[in-house]
Prior knowledge:
By secondary structure, the chain is an alpha+beta fold. It is built from 25 helices and 35 strands. The strands form eleven sheets. It has a nine-stranded antiparallel β-sheet. The protein is globular. The protein starts with 8 loop residues before the first helix and ends with a helix.
Amino acid sequence: MPKAPDSSPASSRRRGATREELRLQESQDRTAHWKRWGPYLAERQWGTVREDYSPHGTVWEYVPHDHARSRAYRWGEDGIAGITDNHGRLCLALALWNGRDPILKERLFGLNGNEGNHGEDVKEYYFYLDSTPTHSYMKYLYKYPQAEFPYAALVTESRRRDRRAPEFELIDTGVFAADRYFDVVVEYAKVAPDDILVRITATNRGPEAADLHVLPTLWYRNTWSWDTGGPERPALRAGAAAGGYAVIEGDHASLGARWLYCEGAPQRLFTENDTNVVRLYGRPNAGPYVKDSINAFVVEGRKDAVNPDGVGTKAAAYYRQTLAPGQGAVTRLRLSNTPIPGDPFGKEFDVVFGQRAQEADLFYATVIPKKLSDDARNVMRQAFAGLLWSKQFYHYDVRRWLEGDPAGPPPPPERLQGRNHEWRHLYNEDVVSMPDKWEYPWYAAWDLAFHTIPLALVDPDFAKAQLVLFLREWYMHPNGQIPAYEWSLGDVNPPVHAWAALRVYRIERRLRGRGDREFLGKVFHKLLLNFTWWVNRKDAEGRNVFQGGFLGLDNIGVFDRSAPLPTGDRLEQSDGTSWMGMYCLNMLAIALELAKQDPAYADVASKFFEHFVYIAHAVDSPGTGINLWDEADGFYYDVLHGNGTAYPVKVRSMVGLIPLFAVETLEPDVVDKLPGFKRRMQWFIDNHPEFRGHVEMATRPGVGVRRLLAIVGREQLPRVLRLMLDETEFLSPHGIRGVSRYHQDHPYSLRLDGIEHRVDYEPAESSSALFGGNSNWRGPVWFPVNYLLIESLQKFHYFYGDAFKIPFPTGSATTLNLWQVAAELSRRLTRIFLRDADGRRPVYGGTETFQRDPLWRDLVLFYEYFHGDDGAGIGASHQTGWTGLVAKLLQQSGER
């Protein structure tokens, strides 16, 4: 068996680097395409805007799970524990059957928003256990019940429950009782960039023998059905069998030839990845072999369902196993771009697997601090695995989607003026970091910015490439807006791209000893366009107070802040304005960094300094009638304007804490080297005395004058923190809540045009359908904003030092400096995932199987958000995306 090369230009430059680091360098140098293949399949492809061709955008209903096995997807593919190439042409994934289910288990099952009492929710148990950044080694676990999968029961019971009841999960159905399930572990190891070993290990955890049908499935994404006259249909065919293995050969016009070697003598089943229009629409099929034919062969026993000639565009190697209690069985495969001479499953197969797993350990030993406990290291490793497994090939051509395919029926006419019609330029065909490949198999711009922070710890080049990608002309709108997410590309996410770029730049500089100034400059120039878009579109009256809309915080407001207000009034947003203040300071910091080598950037730095001061002044300007700061309460609120009046919307929420994010220190060793910037800054301060309160200065002997730019000044800071760190308000045992617990007993109510709008404290799922069913900012703990709060406290401490102390928690006799407060908040967040003194993880709440069962207790899920009182995981169970920030928090705690 050929070995991966150990010498390269990269290896000669980086002696002592781990093998995975060398692969990353080879990939970046384009001497070896180690990232061509990866886990780039969605866990499901239905429920996406792209696949929705309904007249009125009923996305979740248009391709129900019952249709998924029969309908050829237009824009992507899905599969369990699957891989594909970076253009999504050829896919390999796992299908299973326990002999009882009504269908093959080819994709994960879940409920749409109208089926679940708390919205979209996956009803499966699968875990990303490991992955290197190049995907040279990957490991995935799927828990498959031996009883019939309770599809109908999950839907029926979930519909029966109201919003006050908890979600009905798969484990609640009893199908895992007495351990009657299979643990199915899928591992991948790359011999070379296009030579991939696959090992599937199925273990019967139950007390009795059980049958398991294992069907590794290889197929081509359907690219041939949409255009008249092409492209050429690829082909899979049965290769010549040899002693000890069977072969499936593939040929694709752009991907070239491929060979899938299947150990043993599995039956090879062939069909076409074409829609079964007979089943779905009652019309004749173009041919007898369609997407669900393998399902018909295995489950329905229809022997004529598959092609006896052994050709098609979809094929499976069919293994039947009977496993005794506790018995495991291994299925081995190998996918290669060249024929393998000799035995493709010789002794070196397991040797290479061992090497790649060991190389993964060695790589993560350089990333995960040794000071962490074994449990913390396990959590951090699985967080990285979740981030890396959540990459997805993403394809969306909005013009084609709006106008329809030449070979297909025209889309409904409503589409041309409907969702995303103003984004006809957008053409995406890339591998993108996803929030969650089941519930959110489409990117979200502000989610992705947070993804890049922990990703930069393991693959700075990928993190940088993702940030640059969203600023490319085929993503960014010509007017400068960054696409928000597929559901509505024109929605407005918080402007955190500049923050993420600067953080990634600094992380890479610390890791590699140098910062990528070319990357920083490239991002900065494009973000100038985006900043201008924000100023022109979201500052309605040019008063440096911004609207923005819901800004990613979903139902945090009294009403939908993205929709026109019930009275036609205008809402001046504390968070929108503060995000823009933060944006100014991020751009200022980038400009000053670039000015160290190119003084031309000092001029634009002055612009961002001045713009920030104007914003900070507008936030707290009683004379203007805006005044987002409430002096009586010591807090920031949105302000409702209409009919010449201004009315503060007094909800104690994250909206009033986001002003803390806008903080930056200007150090004398930077400012003094830029005399032009320093002179302009001082002129501005001298000639605008009303703004001096927003630039705090302190002289340190032997250092010089340090300057603090912050929306929240020295007098306001302790007052805001008094509420934030009060355990009866925002501070929970597991972080900062989205809405204060104060509203549990004091709901906020606002009556407009005779209609009552209300906000209660809701620590778990939302009781309202506003913004879908399972996204709730009215009390739970969310990682991204908590992470920014921690970083902001550290910045304040950097300026104020140890002398600035506050009670922690509020009302306590204990006082801490702001660095210590940040560290305590970090500990509260990381404790969500760590076992406590009783061996329990708060993330799993009262689910005893996850708390006590040795086959479950070390498996970690990274939920969308967390219960505001007990820390239990809520919402999407695999949104490792921004919850993966826990890896960065653990890394920081391990290096203190």
